Amino acid sequence: MVLKTRLYGKTYEFDSVKQVLAKASELKSGDCLANIAAESKLERVAAKTVLSELTVKELRENPVVPYEADAITRLIQDDLDEEVYRKVQNLSMAELREWILDSRTTGEMITEISKGLTSEVISGVSKLMGNMDLIYAGSKMRITAKCNTTIGEEGVLACRLQPNHPTDDVKGVIASTLEGLSYGAGDAVIGLNPAIDTVDSTIAIWNVLEEIKHKYEIPTQTCVLSHVTTQMEALRRGAKADLCFQSIAGSEKALDAFGVTISMLEEARQMFLEKGSAKGPNVMYFETGQAAELSSDAHFNADQVTMECRCYGLARHYKPFLVNTVVGFMGPEYIYDSKQLLRAGLEDVFNGHLHGLPMGCDACYTNHMPTDQNDIELLSMLLANAGCHFMMGLPQGDDVMLMYQSTGYHDIAAIREITKKRPMKEFEQWLEKRGFWENGHLGRHAGDLSVLL
Amino acid sequence: MSGNKKDFTNIRIQDMIDTDGIENVEILRKAKETTPARIGIGHIGARYKTTPMLRFVADQAAASDAVFTEVSKEVIKRLGVIEIKTKCKNKNDMITRPDWGRIIEEDQQQILRDKCIPNPQVQIYFGDGLSSPSIEANIPDLFPTIKKGLEHEGVSIGTPFFVRYCRVNTARTIAPLLGAEVACVLIGERPGLITAESMSAYIAYKPHIDMQESEYTVVSNISRYGMPPVEAGEHIVDLILEILAKKKSGVNLKG
User: Fold this and answer.
1) What's the mean pLDDT when you consider all of chain A?
2) What is the sign of the dihedral through the CA atoms of A52, A57, A58 and A63?
3) Is the pLDDT of residue B2 over 60?
4) Which of B92, B123, B131, B160 is nearest to B225 (CA)?
5) Residue A63 annotated as binding?
6) Mean pLDDT, chain B, whole residue set
7) Chain A, nearest residue to B57 by Cα
8) Inter-chain CB proximity B60 and A372 less than 8 Å
9) For A351, which of A129, A212, A258, B154 is 20 to 30 Å away at the CA?
C-alpha cells in the first residue's frame, strides 16, 4: 500500500488510510477543529490522489475504528455481502468512481454492488466526487422501502411534515399539521419532535397524529421523535404508532452518548414490527448529521464524512423506511458556511443512497451560522436534482421549538413544480380529492386548513 | 412612494393572517392563536406573499445580527461592570472555536484577581454567548433581582463582570479562580426567529475543569417573550439557595 505521491515536485506522504481519508475530505470546520484536515489545498489533492489508487480491499481492511474496539465496525464488517465484495475488492477508488459515473451503470447495478462496500469505501469514493458528480450519480439511484406507503419511487419527492410546537400544545400541533397537509407536505411521515420527552406526552401526541391520519384517511405514517426507549414504553402502554425514530452516530462511543445500543435498536424494531400499527416491513426512521461523533469526542480522529458514512453502515442493518441527515443543525464549528453546507448535504444524500438507504435531507441552518434562507433554498434545489427522496416541510421553514430554520411547506410545493416531481402516488390522489393539488401544482384549497376542520 | 409603513415587526405572528380564499376565516383565526408557527400566511403560486416574506427575513436578520454584532462598550459602562475576554479574538473565533470560548488567559485572570472580591458564596457574571442584545435586554432587571434576593437571605455575592466571547464553560476556570462556591453565568442563547434576545442562566455548585455538563442547573428562555427577567431572577434565587443548601447542582439536585 503506497501512501505517498508527488505534486508539482513536492512529495506528500501520509501515515495511515485514516489520515488519507481525513485529508482528502473537502474543507469542513469540524475537521479543522479536530485538527485532522489537510493543511493546504494541494495537500488535500495529494490525499485524493493517493486515495484514488487505494483498493476496496485496502479500505475495508483499514476501518477508521478498529474491529476489536468498536461494535459498529464489527456490525458493518460482519453484515457485508462477501460474494459481492469478492467481485469488487480489487477495484481502485478511481475505478469504482468511474464505474458509478458510467452511463451504462444503472441505479439498480449500483445498489447491488453497494452491498459489498463498507462505509469507509463509500466515504472514500465520495471524496473523489465533485459536487456535480454527486448529483449526477445520485440522480440514478432510487431506493424503495415500504411502511404504510412506499418511499423512493421514480419521479417522487416526498416530505416529512414537521409540526413542532414550543410546548407540544395539541391544538397547535393539529393546526400546523392540517396546514402542512393542505400544501402537500406529509407523505413521507408526519413526525413531531416533542418539547417534552416523556412517555405520557409521547402517547398523547402520537394518538393525535394517528387520529388525524384515520379521520381524513391519509395514506402516510406517523412518528413522535422522542428517545427510542420512550417510544418503546409508549408502545407497551398501547400507543398507536407507525415508525420508530432514533438519532444515531458512527461509533459505539458516540452512540452511547445518545443513550442507545445496537441491540436496543434491534429490540425496538422487533417491537414496532409486532406491536406497531404500520404494515411494514420497514419501520425504522433514523436521523444523522456530520460531526455528532466529534461533538461527543467519539470520532477517533477520523473525518466527519467517514464517521457519517458509518452511521449509514449502522442504519442499513435495520432496513429503515427513512434516513434523514439533519445537515445544518450541529453549528458552524462543524459545518461553517453555505459552501460547506451545500457540500455536506450532497455528500450525505449520495453516501446514504450508496449504502442502499432511502435518504432524505433536512436542509437547514442555525442562526449562528453565516447563512440564511437563500442558502438552503439553493441546497434544496440541488438535493432534488441529486435524487434526494424526501425533505422537511415546516410552516415557513421556522421551527418554533428547536429554534432553527429548514424548508417550508411552500418550498416543497415549489421544488416539486420546478423539478416536475410529485408527491407519493396514493398521497397525491388524496391531495387531489381534497383540492390541495391539481395538475402538478397547488390546488384551490392549498393553504386553507379551515376546509379540514 | 410611501415611507410611512408601520414597524411590522411589532405585530404578533398570531395576528399575521392572510384570509385570501379561506373558506372559514374564524377557524383559521382560532388555529393561529394556538401556535407561534407561521401558518395562515397565504401563498402566491407556491411562494410566499411579500409581507410574510419580509417579516421572515427581518426576524432572521435580527437573529443573525444578534450573534455577529458586539456588545458595545457603552452597554458595559451603563451596567457599571468590568470586562474581560476569552481566548477568542472576534465573533468568528467565537462560533468556530468552542474550546477557545472557555479559556481565560493569564492576563485576563489577573484582572479578575485584582478587581474582584475573593471567595464569595456566589459568583455571578454575564456573557454575550450567542446573543449580544440579550445583555442589554435582560441584565438591568435580571441581575438586581438576583442580587437583592440573595443578599436578603444573607448570601455573599462576588463582583459582577462581563465576559466577551463567552461560553458557559468559562465557569470551570472562573469559579475556582475566585474561590466561589456557586457560579451563575447569565449568557445569551442561540437566537431563533421568535426572539433574538433570549438569555439562559447556567448555575453550578463548585464547578471545576472535569465536571459533567449535566451538573449545570439551567434556566432558559429568559426574555420579555419567554420568562420575563424579574420572574426569572426570583426563580434563580430559589435555585441558588437550594444548591447552596444541598451542596450540589444539575441532575444531582433531583436525586
Assistant:
1) 97
2) positive
3) no
4) B131
5) no
6) 96
7) A373
8) yes
9) A258
Between the alpha carbon of residue A437 and those of residues A443, A445, B17, the distances in Å are 4, 8, 22
CATH level 3 topology of B73-254: Rossmann fold (3.40.50)
* Residue reference for cell 418554533: A400
Residue matched to cell numbers 416531481: A421
Quick one: which H or E segment has residue A178? helix A170-182
Nearest to B195 by CA among A82, A315, A14, A400: A400
CA–CA min distance A188, chain B (Å): 20
Instruction: Give Cα B227 distance to the centre of its chain.
Output: 11
Pairing state between β B161-164 and B122-127 = parallel
Of chain B, the end-to-end C-alpha distance in Å amounts to 64
Q: Quick check: helix, strand or coil at residue A9?
A: coil
**What DSSP letter does each residue of B56-120 carry, written as one string?**
HHHHHHHHHHHHHSPPPHHHHHHHT-EEEE-S--SHHHHHH-TTGGG---HHHHHHHHHHS-SS-
A185 touches B at CB < 8 Å: no
For residue A19, the SS3 value is: helix
Q: What is the CATH number of domain A145-452?
A: 3.20.20.70
- Please name which of A199, A155, A399, A311 lies closest in space to residue B36, comparing C-alpha atoms: A399
For residue range B191-210, list pLDDT tens digits in order.
999 999 999 999 999 999 99
Q: Is the ipTM of this complex over 0.85?
A: yes
Query: What are the φ and ψ backbone dihedral angles of A136, each rounded to 5 degrees?
Result: -60, -50
The C-alpha cell that represents B40 in the structure block: 395562515
pTM: 0.95
- Please compute the mean of the pLDDT values over residues A336-356 and round it to a whole number: 98
Measured distance CA(A72)–CA(A42) in Å, rounded: 33
Asked whether the beta carbons of B64 and A365 are under 8 A apart, the reply is no
- Which residues on chain B are in Cβ contact (under 8 Å) with A450? 22-25, 27-28, 31
Cβ–Cβ contact A443 with B under 8 A: no
To the nearest whole percent, how much of chain B has pLDDT over 70?
A: 98
Among candidates B35, B56, B190 on the partner chain, residue whose Cβ is nearest the Cβ of A176 = B35
Tell me A188's DSSP state.
S
Are B184 and B250 in contact by the 8 Å Cβ rule? The answer is: no
Question: Which pLDDT belongs to residue B255?
Answer: 61
Per-residue pLDDT, B4: 63
* CB nearest to A172's CB, from B35, B42, B64: B35
Structural domain boundaries in chain B: 73-254
Q: Does A395 touch chain B (CB under 8 A)?
A: yes
Determine the 3-state secondary structure of B186 from DSSP.
Answer: strand
The whole-number pLDDT of residue B3 equals 61
**Angle A259-A261-A266 (CA atoms, 0-180°, nearest 5)?**
125
